[in-house]
Amino acid sequence: MTKKLTTSWGAPVGDNQNSITAGQRGPVLIQDVHLLEKLAHFNRERVPERVVHAKGAGAYGTFTVTNDVSKYTKAKLFNGVGKETDMFIRFSTVAGELGSADTVRDPRGFAVKFYTEEGNYDIVGNNTPVFFIRDAIKFPDFIHTQKRDPRTHLKNPTAVWDFWSHSPESLHQVTILMSDRGIPATLRHMHGYGSHTFKWVNAEGQAVWVKYHFRTEQGVKNLDVDLAAKLAGENPDYHTEDLFNAIEKGDFPAWKLYVQIMPLEDADTYRFDPFDVTKVWSQKDYPLIEVGRMVLNKNPENYFAEVEQATFSPGTFVPGVEASPDKMLQGRLFAYGDAHRYRVGANHNQLPVNRPKAEVNNHQRDGFMAGDGNGGRSVYYEPNSFGGPNEVPEAKVTPFDVTGQAAQVAYDHDDHYTQAGDLYRLLSEEERTRLVANIVGAMKPVELEEIKLRQISHFYKADPEYGTRIAEGLGLAVPQQA
C-alpha cells in the first residue's frame, strides 16, 4: 500500500511539485503553508554543531560483565558475571568541523552511554589516557588554538605551538598525538580511556579511586601519514564508512573494559597527583583489572536522530560512581550538560537515543520539544503531600573531606617531563624517527623562532635526544637554559 505524503501536522499534500501562485506567472502566495513549512524546516535542519568533537560516528552494542567488581562499586551495570547492559557509543575527532576529514592527526573522542536499570551512565573520554591541559579554565583558550584564525579563517600552527610551549603540561599528550597513535587506522583499531580519575563506592560506603581502560580486541593499528593524507582527500569519511560496513557485515568490533583501582589514601602520597589528567598511573603500581566486554552490533537507522543528537556528559552518573577532585573533570561536569542544553535543547534526554530505559520521575517541565507528555497532571513540585516521587537516601553522594583556603591554586606536582620522556624512550627507533619527523613538519610553519625554541626546551627536558633531534630538524640549537 502506497503511503500518503502529509504535512508535519498530518494533512495530505495534494501537490508537492508546484507552489501556489497568482496565475501561471504570478508571484507565489503566502497562503501556501506547505511551501512555507518545507522551507522553514529546511532552514532549521542543522542544530549547531558541537564546538569540539563535531565529526563523529556511532553505533549500538552490548556490555557484558566478565568479572564481578561489586567489592569496589555498587553500580549495578558492573555487578554480576554475565550481566548485560545495552549501550551506545560515539567516536569523533576533536578539532575538525562537521565536514572535516576522518584521517587527520587528532585525538579521537570515545564516548559510551550505558542504558542501565539505575539510569544512564556515560563514560566520556578519548583514545588517549591523558589530555593537553589539567584545568578547565584553560579549555576555551586551548580549543581556540585548534580552530580557525579569526582573520585568515585558516588553521594556525603558530597559535597551536605558542599555546603548547606556554603550557608544558601538554607535553605528554603532544608526544602521543605526534606519534603513530595520532592517526588511528580505523575507529575499531584504537583503545579508549575514561582519562579522568573517578570515585567508585561499594554497598558498604567504602570508596576507591578508579580509571577506565577500553582495550580493543582488534589490535592497535595506525595510518601512515602519506596514506592518511591521501584518504583525507579521496575519502574524508573513511573511518565512518569502515565502522558502518564492519557492523553491517557482522564483523562486530569489541573492546575489553579494564580498570585501575587506587586506595583513597594513596592519593596523598603517590609520586604524581592522581587527579592530574595530564598524567597516567603506572600499571606496575595499579595493575589492570578486567571488568567486562563491549561489543558493537547495530548501526543507527538515522544519523541525525541518533548520532548527531546523542548527548554525553561525564557528570551522567549512577549510584556507585562519583566525581573526583580532578579540576578538568570538575569543569566538564558543567560544560557538557550546558552544551547539550544550548545545542539540542533543555529536553535532550527525552530524545530516543538519550532516553534512559529506567523510569524517569522528576519535576522538570516545559521548554522546547517537551515530548514525553510533560508530566501530565502529576505533582510538579517537591516536597509535596500528594504522593510524588520521594528521595532515595542510599543514592546520596558519599561524604568527602575538603581542606585549605579557597583560592586559585595549581596542582602541587609540576613534573611535566618524566612521563613524556618515559614514553619517548619506550618507542622503537623507527617510531622515534617518525615522531620527530611529524613534530618537525608541524612546527616548521610556526612564525616566531622563540616559540620553537621554547617548545624545543620542553622536548629536551623530557629527553635530551628528543629535544636535540627536533632542534636539528628545525635547523636550530637547543636553548642553553634547557
TrEMBL record:
<dbReference type="Pfam" id="PF00199">
    <property type="entry name" value="Catalase"/>
</dbReference>
<keyword id="KW-0349">Heme</keyword>
<dbReference type="InterPro" id="IPR020835">
    <property type="entry name" value="Catalase_sf"/>
</dbReference>
<feature type="binding site" description="axial binding residue">
    <location>
        <position position="336"/>
    </location>
    <ligand>
        <name>heme</name>
    </ligand>
</feature>
<keyword id="KW-0408">Iron</keyword>
<dbReference type="GO" id="GO:0042542">
    <property type="term" value="P:response to hydrogen peroxide"/>
</dbReference>
<dbReference type="GO" id="GO:0042744">
    <property type="term" value="P:hydrogen peroxide catabolic process"/>
</dbReference>
<dbReference type="InterPro" id="IPR011614">
    <property type="entry name" value="Catalase_core"/>
</dbReference>
<protein>
    <recommendedName>
        <fullName>Catalase</fullName>
        <ecNumber>1.11.1.6</ecNumber>
    </recommendedName>
</protein>
<dbReference type="Pfam" id="PF06628">
    <property type="entry name" value="Catalase-rel"/>
</dbReference>
<dbReference type="GO" id="GO:0046872">
    <property type="term" value="F:metal ion binding"/>
</dbReference>
<dbReference type="GO" id="GO:0005737">
    <property type="term" value="C:cytoplasm"/>
</dbReference>
<keyword id="KW-0479">Metal-binding</keyword>
<dbReference type="GO" id="GO:0020037">
    <property type="term" value="F:heme binding"/>
</dbReference>
<feature type="domain" description="Catalase core">
    <location>
        <begin position="6"/>
        <end position="390"/>
    </location>
</feature>
<comment type="similarity">
    <text>Belongs to the catalase family.</text>
</comment>
<dbReference type="InterPro" id="IPR010582">
    <property type="entry name" value="Catalase_immune_responsive"/>
</dbReference>
<dbReference type="InterPro" id="IPR002226">
    <property type="entry name" value="Catalase_haem_BS"/>
</dbReference>
<dbReference type="InterPro" id="IPR024711">
    <property type="entry name" value="Catalase_clade1/3"/>
</dbReference>
<dbReference type="GO" id="GO:0004096">
    <property type="term" value="F:catalase activity"/>
</dbReference>
<feature type="region of interest" description="Disordered">
    <location>
        <begin position="1"/>
        <end position="22"/>
    </location>
</feature>
<dbReference type="InterPro" id="IPR040333">
    <property type="entry name" value="Catalase_3"/>
</dbReference>
<feature type="active site">
    <location>
        <position position="126"/>
    </location>
</feature>
<keyword id="KW-0376">Hydrogen peroxide</keyword>
<keyword id="KW-0560">Oxidoreductase</keyword>
<dbReference type="InterPro" id="IPR018028">
    <property type="entry name" value="Catalase"/>
</dbReference>
<keyword id="KW-0575">Peroxidase</keyword>
<feature type="active site">
    <location>
        <position position="53"/>
    </location>
</feature>
<dbReference type="InterPro" id="IPR024708">
    <property type="entry name" value="Catalase_AS"/>
</dbReference>
